[in-house]
TrEMBL record, chain A:
PROSITE patterns: ABC_TM1. This is Sugar ABC transporter permease. Residues 87-281 form the ABC transmembrane type-1 domain. It comes from the Bacteria. Keywords: Cell membrane, Membrane, Transmembrane, Transmembrane helix, Transport. GO terms for cellular component: plasma membrane. It is found in: Cell membrane.
Automatic annotation (TrEMBL), chain B:
Residues 1-23 form the signal peptide. One of its GO terms (biological process) is transmembrane transport. Pfam families: SBP_bac_8. It comes from Alloscardovia macacae. The keyword DNA repair does not apply. Keywords: Signal, Transport. This is ABC transporter solute-binding protein. It comes from the Bacteria.
UniProtKB/TrEMBL annotation, chain C:
Gene3D superfamilies: MetI-like. This is ABC transporter permease. Keywords: Cell membrane, Membrane, Transmembrane, Transmembrane helix, Transport. One of its GO terms (biological process) is transmembrane transport. It holds the Pfam family BPD_transp_1. The keyword Membrane applies.
């Protein structure tokens, strides 16, 4: 009985492999087309960033405008926004806020998941989930009233970093909460505790490593949010030396005159670092998964 | 257990240190460093941001003050709200006229004693105190491209020959006969329709406030000569718009202005601020502004543009602005209006039309030149600055429907009267 | 036992959750209650005095028909967007975790729309709708076409399209993490037991990805409900103010029309609606959770 099945399978298998290869190829083609549609707007940004204003309005689809290919938008955008300075600010703020968010949120999610009956856990978690639906505009004026009007702590990178963390912990805790619940078996922790590790060490040596894929996801989502955020930094940072990229570029699109060429050049300049970060973290997600697979 | 407690203390300590650092940093940034006075200027006119930044540097060096210029993409009122809530007002803020009325009494210092006050008709006073310094004069009317008209009709274009709606219809049909299919561009922006065109109906009344009150009491707008006259002209504009129906509503301002600059169309309703956009498309220099042609000439509307002071500076009066800063700010306003370098900057660098009589410099841009000409000849109908804040948005939406051909004039008139009937009339004066 | 002592519980909680909770409370909870207080005043946003007016702002909010219109519109937009976002995201996630060649490349590609913020994204798409699509339409039909943004339904469609385009890649990332979290051995076991791919998906994988679904649906719902940046830069409420979504109405009410108290009250009502929807989703998700 058993040997019979194996022989049939080898016949079947060859056909199946061919069919699979065809399906595979078809799928890749379909995905590629879809991807092209997805990134087409960015292609437009890319080509138009090198055109003059009148070409952008007159012939948006051409790859090189009739006034020719020009780097003028880039040089002028870089100069107007003080690119290197604002880039440095954005980088420092984004990196520190992202790292802090991941650390404090993973910790908080852990204690909440493992002690769901504690009042503090229930309260903290429901407040955080509920807070995700508060429109930021509601908090804007009260926030600056408290931290500017009463405490006078605005205009500092550290304040901005801590505020970024405060606003993003709810989403991050929410995501880590789900991940710990489904992907971290309690048995592993119990084993570590029998070996004499405290909760703190158990968390960092056993639990956190299993959270790497989620941590990478949170890192990407938050890093992007921080990198691109305009409203909060514009409220907190009033000193020009502390400006981040989005604040520095906003002057390019005003109500009465929008220099689309400059906007597009600035866009590309702002996008590049985050794209590189994403590609780097992408590998990390894959690595995290292989590490996670060991647990099974 | 002991270990856990250690960790716990460490984590708590880290939090405390972080919060302490947060507090410390803020405390430092509040105070001014050095002995040089530092003033901050909020600019809400994005097209002069780079010129202002350069000015801040050169003015700062020559006058020994540290000047910093800021701009925000946010609504002026929202931005001001956050600045005042945070106790970080700018020394000098550039706002719209209506903001001076709403903010000035509480937040602005009295400028009545300044030298420039007698040099302009455009300063804003609230309760007998001069609070708002006019930054520039701006006016609305019909922008024309004379080169484009000449090219099609073969004749030199003299705007003073177009007085009435019928004159205007004539030149439109000449242009069409010459091959220009759609000689007009209409901006669909709600502020253009309901903050610029529609208010002319109020502004060209002998008493705008009384007129609005009559609408509030339910007067028939369709019976008003001004309304009929202006809307007759608007119909000519609308019917000859290069974009019709739905297209009129998605027409982008940049495209319309490019068409005008290139001479594909010949007329557009707008103001001298449009030059900042037109100028990006290698426009012909032979452009200008003329009054909106109308058949009804009561109030001499055929000879006048509508406009006046636009954008106002006020100086903060709170504890956050020291006396030295107020003094430096006053000196800056004085420099801008009365001194030669300042006057030159306004006209030649920022390309604004100065609201100050002593500033006799020739304006370079053609639209500004027209405005200056009308202003000097006292041919400007005043802006009505007391419209409620939602006027342009609510009635702009209705006006857009009219532009798209989705409702008729009587319906629009009805909506305007309904708007005023429901209004609490708090702002009207 | 030590684990039942209150001091132990408090210590444990503070050790792990202390920093997160303190920061969260400082920037969200405190301003929230201050904002709540402001809804009972007739403050205009800049005046020095904040006169107390009781529930007047709430009465005004309930009487503001434009607000309820905007809310209704937001519901329609959100429901359609959430369904489409999640369907597209799930399929994308499935495809890019099924072992295709270059799947990492695809993952990166589909995520790209998220690399730039809502405001800028709106400008890019406005450009696409008003210039690129129109230019293509003109080339194809020979006559100049109208932009979708000029009609009421077109503007709504545009908002939905861009939202799906943007969030599909984002939610895909969460679904990818979900797929990764499912043990391959479980799926293999199911296949060996004679399940087809579809059955394995339905009976084994999807139930195990419940938390991903809850997260994605919750996130996409709340984001759609609170859409502002995209609304502002893509349609600005036009045409005829028929694409003004709830958050934009609230913002305009508070800052453009300078009715801060009423705007804040309307925002609070929006918050309560969102919170109720969110809580229901999380509750339903929790109830059916696979007991691990």
């Amino acid at each position: 009985m058993a040997t019979q099945t194996v022989r049939d399978n080898s016949q079947e298998n060859r056909k199946a492999v061919i069919r699979q290869r065809l399906a595979h190829g078809g799928m890749i083609t379909a995905l590629s087309l879809l991807l092209l549609a997805f990134i087409w707007p960015f292609f437009l940004v890319l080509t138009n960033a090198f055109k003059s204003m009148s070409d952008i309005t007159g012939e948006p689809l051409s790859i090189i405008g009739s006034h020719g290919f020009s780097l003028k938008n880039f040089t002028s955008a870089m100069k107007k926004m003080h690119f290197w300075r604002v880039f440095g600010n954005s980088a420092v703020i984004t990196v520190s806020a992202t790292v802090l968010t991941i650390l404090v949120s993973a910790m908080a999610a852990y204690v909440i998941v493992r002690n769901p009956k504690w009042t503090a856990s229930k309260l903290a978690f429901s407040a955080m989930v509920a807070s995700m639906v508060i429109p930021f505009q509601v908090l804007m004026v009260p926030l600056v009233s408290v931290y500017g009007g009463y405490l006078g702590v605005l205009n500092s990178r550290i304040t901005l970093i801590l505020m970024h963390v405060g606003f993003s912990v709810s989403l991050a805790v929410f995501m880590f909460h789900g991940a710990i619940k489904t992907n971290v078996p309690v048995e592993l922790e119990e084993a570590a505790e029998i070996d004499g590790a405290g909760k703190w060490r158990t968390f960092w040596t056993v639990v956190f490593p299993l959270l790497k894929p989620t941590a990478a996801t949170v890192a990407i989502i938050d890093a992007m949010a921080f990198w691109n955020d305009y409203l909060l930094p514009s409220l907190v940072l009033t000193n020009k030396k502390l400006y981040t990229i989005p604040i520095a570029t906003q002057v390019f699109y005003g109500t009465y005159s929008t220099d689309i060429g400059l906007v597009m050049a600035a866009l590309l300049l702002a996008m590049l670092p985050i794209l590189i970060l994403y590609l780097a973290l992408q590998r990390f997600i894959v690595a995290g998964v292989t590490a996670g697979a060991v647990k099974g | 257990m002991v270990k856990d407690w250690k960790r716990w203390t460490a984590a708590a300590a880290a939090t405390v240190v972080a919060l302490g650092a947060l507090a410390a940093c803020g405390a430092n940034s509040g105070s001014d460093d050095g002995d040089g006075t530092k003033i901050t200027i909020f600019n809400s006119k994005s097209e002069i941001q780079s010129q202002l930044e350069e000015l801040a540097e050169s003015y700062g060096e020559s006058h020994g003050v540290d000047v910093e210029v800021y701009y925000s993409n946010d609504t002026v009122a929202a931005h001001m709200a956050t600045k005042y809530a945070a106790n970080q007002p700018y020394t000098i803020s550039m706002v719209d006229a209506k903001d001076v009325y709403s903010l000035g009494a509480e937040h602005a210092i009295d400028l009545s004693g300044e030298k420039w006050v007698s040099d302009t008709d455009q300063a804003i006073s609230v309760n007998g105190k001069v609070l708002g310094f006019p930054v520039s004069v701006e006016a609305r009317g019909l922008i024309y491209n004379a080169d484009a008209i000449k090219k099609v009709t073969g004749k030199d274009f003299d705007p003073s020959t177009i007085k009435t709606t019928d004159d205007f219809k004539q030149i439109i049909s000449d242009l069409k006969a010459g091959g220009m299919e759609n000689p007009v561009g209409v901006m669909k922006e709600d502020w253009s329709l309901a903050a610029h065109y529609l208010p002319q109906v109020y502004e060209e009344q002998s008493d705008p406030a009384a007129f609005i009150k009559s609408l509030h009491d339910g007067a028939d707008l369709n019976a008003d000569a001004r309304w009929t006259s202006l809307m007759d002209t608007f119909d000519v504009l609308k019917d000859n718009n290069y974009a019709q129906g739905d297209k009129a509503i998605s027409a982008e301002r940049e495209v319309t202005e490019q068409k005008l600059a290139k001479g594909e169309i010949a007329f557009m309703f707008g103001g001298n601020w449009d030059w900042a956009v037109l100028n990006q498309y290698e426009p012909s220099k032979n452009m200008g502004m003329m009054p909106v042609p109308q058949n009804d000439n009561s109030m001499d509307v055929q000879d006048k543009l509508v406009g006046g002071g636009s954008k106002y500076f006020f100086i903060d009066n709170s504890k956050n602005t020291s006396e030295a800063q107020q003094k430096a700010a006053k000196a800056f306003l004085n420099w801008l209006s009365e001194e030669k370098d300042g006057q030159e900057w306004v006209v030649n660098t920022a390309h604004l039309v100065s609201p100050f009589k002593s500033n006799k410099l020739e304006v370079a841009d053609p639209l500004g030149k027209s405005v200056k000409k009308f202003a000097d000849a006292n041919k400007l109908i005043n802006n009505y600055n007391y419209l409620p804040d939602d006027h342009y948005s609510v009635l702009g939406a209705n006006f857009q429907k009219y532009l798209a051909g989705q409702e008729d004039r009587a319906a629009l008139a009805g909506q305007i009267v309904d708007y005023w009937k429901a209004n609490d009339m708090k702002t009207i004066q | 036992m030590k684990q039942n002592k209150l001091s132990y519980k408090v210590g444990q909680f503070l050790m792990f959750a202390g920093p997160a909770v303190v920061l969260f409370a400082a920037v969200v909870i405190v301003p929230f209650f201050y904002g709540l207080y402001l809804t009972f005043t007739s403050w205009d946003g800049v005046a020095k005095t904040k006169p107390f007016v009781g529930f007047q702002n709430y009465a005004d909010a309930f009487a503001d028909t434009a607000y309820w219109d905007a809310l209704g519109r937001t519901v329609v937009y959100s429901v359609i967007s959430v369904v489409l976002v999640n369907v597209v995201a799930f399929f994308l996630a499935y495809l890019v975790t099924s072992g295709l060649k270059g799947q990492n490349f695809f993952r990166a590609g589909f995520f790209i729309p998220n690399l730039i913020g809502g405001i800028v994204l709106g400008y890019v798409w406005k450009f696409v709708f008003n210039r690129a699509f129109v230019a293509i339409g003109t080339a194809l039909t020979g006559q100049e076409g109208a932009s979708l943004l000029g009609t009421t339904n077109g503007a709504l469609f545009a908002l939905i399209l861009v939202s799906v385009w943007q969030y599909a890649g984002y939610m895909m990332l969460i679904y990818v993490a979900g797929f990764m979290g499912v043990d391959d051995s479980l799926k293999e076991a199911a296949l060996i037991d004679g399940c087809t791919n579809g059955q394995a998906m339905r009976n084994v994988i999807i139930p195990l990805m419940r938390s991903s679904f809850v997260q994605c649906i919750f996130l996409s719902t709340t984001r759609c409900f609170m859409v502002y940046d995209l609304n502002l830069s893509l349609t600005k409420g036009e045409p005829f103010n028929t694409s003004v979504m709830a958050a934009m109405h609230v913002y305009n009410k508070a800052f453009v029309y300078k009715n801060y108290g009423v705007g804040q009250a309307e925002a609070l009502i929006l918050f309560i609606i969102c919170a109720v929807i969110g809580m229901i989703q999380v509750y339903v998700g929790k109830k059916g959770e696979v007991e691990a």
